[in-house]
Amino acid sequence: MRRSSDNVFKYVDWWTILLYGLLVAIGWMAIFTANYDGPGTPVFDIATAQGRQFAWIIVCIVIAFVIQLFEGKFYATYALIFYALALMGLIVVLIFGQVISGSQSWIEVGGLGKIQPSEFAKFATALLLAKYLGDRGQRTTVLKDQVTAGLFILLPAALILMQPDTGSALVFTSLILVMYREGLSPSLLILLIVMVILAVAALMYDPYEIVGILSVIGLLYVIVTSSFDRYQMLFYAIGVLLAFMILTQLQSIQILIGFGILFVISIVAFFAQRKPFALAFSGLFASVLYSQTVQYAFTKLLKGYQQERILVMLGQIEDTRGIGYNLHQSLLAIGSGGTWGKGFLNGIINKGNFVPELSTDFIFCSIGEEFGFMGSVVLVSLFVALLVRIVQVAERQNSNFSRIYGYSVASILFFHFFINLSMTIGLAPIIGIPLPFISYGGSSLLGFTILIFIFIRLDIDREEVIK
Amino acid sequence: MENVEKKIIIQGIFILAGLILLGRLYAVQVNDPDYGTEAESNVVRKVVVYPSRGLMFDRFGKLVVNNEPVFDLMVVPRQVSNLDTAKFCSLLGIDQEFFVENTRRARRFSSYKASVFMPQIPLRLFTGFQEYMYQFPGFFPQIRTVRNYSRNCASHLLGYIGEVNKTQLDTSDYYLMGDFIGINGIERTYENALRGKRGVKFTTVDVHNREKGSYKDGAKDEPAIAGTDIQISIDLLLQEYGERLMQNKIGSAVAIEPATGEILAMVSSPGFDPQLLSGRDRSRNYRMLEINKNKPLYNRAVQGQYPPGSTFKSFVALIGMQEGVMSKYSSFHCGGSYRLGSRYLKCSHYHPDAPNVKVAIEQSCNPYFWQAFRKFIDAPKFGGPANGLQAFHDYLIKFGFGADLQVDLPGIKKGIIPTVDLYDRLYKAGRWKSSNIISLGIGQGELAVTPLEMANFMAIIANRGYYVAPHLLKYPPGTAPEKYVTRHHTGIDEVHFESAVEGLRSVITNGTGRRAAIEDIEVCGKTGTAQNPHGEDHSVFVAFAPMNDPKIAIAVIVENGGYGSRYGGPIASLMIEKYLKREIRGKQRLALETKMFEADLINVPEEEEEQE
Fold it and tell me: Which residue, of B206, B231, B256, is where some domain finishes?
């Protein structure tokens, strides 16, 4: 056990701090070049974006030190308080917040400028999740604990969704990785992936095609797993027929009846010990219901611009001037960087005001344009190295609390990093979340800094058992 | 151990995700010829291609509004080098101060991004400058068009265009900063058809400001789509003529084709030159027009509200006959005045008792219509003046007075018409009788209608019972929307219209409208003198012609013009003649025309002082 007389620095994980420092430095340079306006551009002037970001970096360094002044236990003990404060912040912003580009996500704090509470909800939720799951040891296999933990995650996500800031709310789904590490069945993870694929398919393909493909898969499954059984095949065929009939009669009462019949057949098959058949059948039933729900939710719940963004991303709409403009300009900037890039401060597209939201969500454009593919490799490698390192450090913790918190940090950073870069290069819909440490914005930088440096502090106490 | 495996799986996911990103980045940055590296010296310039706005033609195909090119001179401050300022300024006709100020402004905006250095430079000035363009790297032109008008008229109904404002930018997903949008009149109503679609062009430019061709062979370009040309229902000849007749007078003239509801002319006087609100001086000119005391920007044809006066009498006769309180042969005693309690209300002139509706309209007998009106309001079938007035009100709406006429112009006002509520408030419910509201019978009192509504009223009589919503667009046959085809019936039987029409005809042949008679055109009309508490009465005249095959219905109001026969009648009749014969014939008629042209009801010297 570490004694208080020991040199704290001996226990600090310098690798993580080094990677953090490099990313922050790259971020500031990217913001500077994005706002570069010829020789004589002010560097530290607080009126400019680069100047303000520099001031925030200083603030972050100070906060990072302050975080180290408390013992690791402090963060576990007060996890619930942090969480409650974060929820309060999210509620306050819904009532008093400022609306900027359609979302009520900002609170004006006297003198400090605008604060985005959702950035601080992330580390608070991570702390509470770690505390809750940590106290229960490896009991995350228990359904009740899974559900409770899920609720802790969903509560802030739901509040953020009301702002509405879909991107930031989705970040919380990344915590499923933590749950997986702590005992959640991998089949749930797989189910999640299948659901994503099915949702995408539901938007891209005709419902008939989907049901057709699913029926064939189900049929193959029945044939492979059970010896040829006429009655099962017959029943299955009737089921497929029913599924199609439901689709052709898209009126609610028929759907209800159809699904009722499908449901009853699956139940009967299950109790008749016809397992492969029952599985195939209920799988088909669930999939059809699910893809219909996705389509319904897509057209009824999402706003017009959100629908369009998703369709543009899926390649269903070709549009380079309207909704697709952001992505088109972003690809143009990144693509024009080539292998070696145009050189620092020489990017033309990122200075020509072609890319909207350049300093925030699309900051990667200026890196991609000026440093080319080589720059991309360096940046992606730094991020992956940081993520791998955090997991590595998390695994050396003595206490469950610290480990779970570490995994939460990695999951949240991973989601931001992967989705942000994906949306700038057309792999994900543009949901507007920042690139950690790089994007312009004080709340975001500070939020990620706190997230990481609490972990650094916990790691110093890694030999203790923190509860 | 299971947990070690999970750790490796999660780290594996991170690495795999990184590889996916790098794979895609490799495809975009290294492998995709579409996004190749641009040569350092080349600059990709994005130029907005503004669509040319739809033209407007009049009902006979004459050009009314077209476009003329102007040039926004754009600048990218960082690319400016070796500028010969003196030459630059003299070519553009600007002074040093303008140059310094605008350069500073552009620089403040950005050194890298293009911004407008000098907006809307006319073609003739620009051609001189263009020759030397190559000497001024960093500057480039952006073509756009402003409106050009073939005739100095119709400014109120055509409207004007201007740059979009903040609210429009925020609420629309089409408009971008600097776009033009229809702000008033037809330009605004039919904005979506007229505007077309904006395009964009990417060109590569070398260090010498020479265009080296389109960027990626125009793969990223989007062509602009020109706006749709439209045909308006206005007869430009008639419109211009009407405005000349109305010059130096305050008022309005509206002409409608009864069968279709197409507006043939819509004059609001004083008007202004539409060219004033086109091009770079628009804001300055607008402010100048705005402070003019005669309010030239105000469209009196659809916004002015006037008592209809005697022109309203045929309405009273029509609804009386329809409700059976009188017939076409009804006679009411005149004797020069009408006794109401202890008061005597005078008729305008002495004449024998009118034996029927026709003569009553011809003689414009006030006592006749007071009595007819009271009989209507007090008719036993209504059971009380409140219900009587409600019926009266409902007929007004059916005749389009104070109703939503669905005109295709922004800023339309409805007439003010009396409601039961109003009199209940003035006199308390149940405490008023037909005698309190008797002035309504002769078109005075709590009644004020727009010139358009009056013209529409004439169209109803011309059509013997219905109107089609008045509108300014001439649709090709069969393409008009439902609302401009539907016949709005007034609920008055056609037979009753004949006595009204006969009355209106004999106003011209024997009555107060004799000055409005035209040789070989059977004009039907009615004079009106709208009482004006602020000064001289307004001269009102409504008419339609020819009697049995109406082609035009018209209403004219000349503020402070006195009797209806003094200005309203002659102007209406000259406009009818111009429309039907395309010219004015006969010495007497030409003399009348000259007299109308020259009549000046606005104090000229004082007016000029005001304008400065």
Answer: B231
Asked whether residue B537 is domain-assigned, the answer is yes
CATH number where B416 lies: 3.40.710.10
Question: Do residues B215 and B297 both lie within one domain?
Answer: no
Enclosing domain of residue B167: 44-231
Distance (Å, whole) CA B503 – CA A210: 77
Contacts of A201-206 spanning 24+ positions with Cβ under 8 A: A201/A291, A202/A290, A202/A291, A202/A292, A202/A294, A202/A295, A202/A298, A203/A294, A203/A295, A203/A298, A203/A310, A203/A311, A203/A314, A203/A316, A204/A314, A204/A316
DSSP B473-517: B-PPTT-S-GGGT-EEE-S--HHHHHHHHHHHHHHHHTSTTGGG-
Closest partner CB to B30 (pick from A339, A348, A418): A339
Question: Which domain CATH number covers B49?
Answer: 3.90.1310.10
Residue A464 confidence class, pLDDT cut points 50, 70, 90:
confident
Tokens 């454009």 belong to residue: A365
Q: State how far the Cα of B14 lies from the Cα of A387, in Å rounded to an integer.
A: 7
Categorize the per-residue pLDDT at A16 as very low, low, confident or very high, splitting at 50, 70 and 90: very high
Question: pLDDT by residue (tens digit) across A162-207?
Answer: 887 888 888 998 998 898 888 877 777 777 777 777 777 677 666 6
Structural domain spans, chain A? 8-182+325-460, 191-301
Separation CA B282–CA B272 (nearest Å)? 13
Question: Considering CB atoms only, which of B7, B26, B112 is closest to A395?
Answer: B7
For chain A, give the number of residues.
467
Judge contact between B402 and B449, C-beta under 8 A. yes
Candidates A100, A114, A224; CA nearest to A165 is A100
Residue B40 has a pLDDT of: 40
- Residue contact A387–B11, C-beta within 8 A: yes
Confidence (pLDDT) at B564:
83
Rounded Cα–Cα distance for residues B304 and B317 (Å)? 26
Q: What predicted TM-score, i.e. pTM, was given to this entire model?
A: 0.59
> The complex's ipTM?
0.82
Q: How many CB pairs under 8 A join A and B?
A: 120
pLDDT of residue A35: 82
| Cβ count near B426 (within 10 Å) | 13
Domain closes at, from B231, B254, B282? B231
Residues of A in contact with B22 (CB under 8 A): 376-377, 380
Strands B230-231 and B56-57 come out as parallel
Residues B547, B521: one domain?
A: yes
Confirm whether B9 is domain-assigned. Answer: no
Q: B197: distance to nearest CA of chain A, Å?
A: 12
SS3 of B96-129: the string is HHHHHHHHHHHHHHCCCCCEEEEEEEEHHHHHHH
d(CA B305, CA B301): 9
> How many structural domains does chain B have?
2
In a domain, B34, yes or no: no
Nearest C-alpha neighbor of B266 from the set B245, B247, B243, B250: B243
In a domain, B241, yes or no: yes
Same domain, residue pair B503 and B372: yes
Cβ-nearest to A335 among B17, B34, B77: B34
Residue B212 and residue B243 in one domain: no
Backbone angles phi, psi at B502, to 5 degrees: -60, -40
pLDDT tens digit sequence for A308-366:
767 765 655 554 445 556 777 788 788 888 888 888 887 766 665 556 677 788 899 99
> How many whole angstroms separate alpha carbon A49 and alpha carbon A52?
5
From CA B465, how far away is CA B107, in angstroms rounded?
67
Provide the β-strand partners of residue B526. Answer: B542
Q: Which residues of A touch B43 (CB under 8 A)?
A: 348
Looking at chain A, the whole-number percentage of residues with pLDDT higher than 90 is 33
